[in-house]
Amino acid sequence: MHLHMSLVLVVCHGDLAPALVDTARMIVGDAGRVTPVRFTPGMGPDELTEAVEATLRSEADGPVPPLILTDLVGGTPARIAATMTAAGRAETVAGVNLSMLVEVLLADAAQPAAELAAIAVRAGSDGVQDLGRTLRDQGVLP
Length: 142
Hints:
Elements: E1 7-13, H1 16-28, E2 33-39, H2 45-59, E3 67-70, H3 76-86, E4 91-94, H4 98-106, H5 113-126, H6 131-137
Parallel strand pairs: 1-2, 1-3, 3-4
């Protein structure tokens, strides 16, 4: 029996998406079905939409909606992904960081995109810490 796996698209401004994907692979290996999509200078929203759609056509695994991770809440990648989410075609989390992507790639890829989105939000939040405050609270720093 073929098990459908959730595709993860990382859609960001400039070179951030491929940099995040390459760095995550350095940490976890080639785990998960993850594809970067770049929003490059001079590209408009229509071109980015087409790039995302083309990636979905070539990478999607049957009827399983993808998880789309974008960089900025309110940015063009997030707005395009939100439109797809509103149409029931994807799950979207904005504010991608390396902690988030690594945890998503380590998760069971057979989980629905909505569950991967919850993992992403939790890991992304947990991965941001004020280490100075933590060290002060632990008495390591004065």
